[in-house]
Amino acid sequence: MMRYTGLFGLAALFAVSAVPAQAGQAADLGYAAIERGDWGTAESQLRAGLVAVPDDPMHMVNLAFVLQQQGKAGEAADLYRRVLEMKSNPRVAIGSEDRQRGVRVKSIATKGMAAIENGR
């Protein structure tokens, strides 16, 4: 399971993804660090996950969020753009919302870009 915290009021975002075990472990550590507000650890773990699976949109939006929290808006925007340019647009569920329906990852990237553009 993958969790996302941030643009949706610190709700957890879950997605099932077929990723190598190492990438999954890095992601789990990264998401735990996000929940603690440990942005440095979250960044390093999510980057490790992206090394293993470079085009994983969930890793990208989570890393972009973490970068935003650290004031690295330009780098975050680059990741959001990459997600928006991808063909895939998987659904992810936020918190206890219906995990079958969920939210498209590009919707999350769009909201992240809007936050950057609005200086948040």
Topology:
Elements: E1 13-14, H1 21-36, H2 39-52, H3 57-69, H4 73-85, E2 91-94, E3 103-104, H5 105-117
Antiparallel strand pairs: 1-2, 2-3
List the defining traits of the structure above:
120 residues, mainly alpha, 3-stranded antiparallel sheet, 5 helices, 3 strands, 7% strand, globular, disordered N terminus
The fraction of residues assigned to DSSP E strands is 5-15%
Helix count?
Answer: 5
N-to-C span: 28 Å
Strand order of the largest sheet: 1-2-3
What does this protein look like?
Helices cover 57% and strands 7% of the residues. With 120 residues, the protein is mainly alpha-helical. The chain has a three-stranded antiparallel beta sheet with strand order 1-2-3.
Question: How do you describe this structure in short?
Answer:
The protein is mainly alpha-helical. 57% of the residues lie in helices and 7% in strands. Strands 1-2-3 form a three-stranded antiparallel beta sheet.
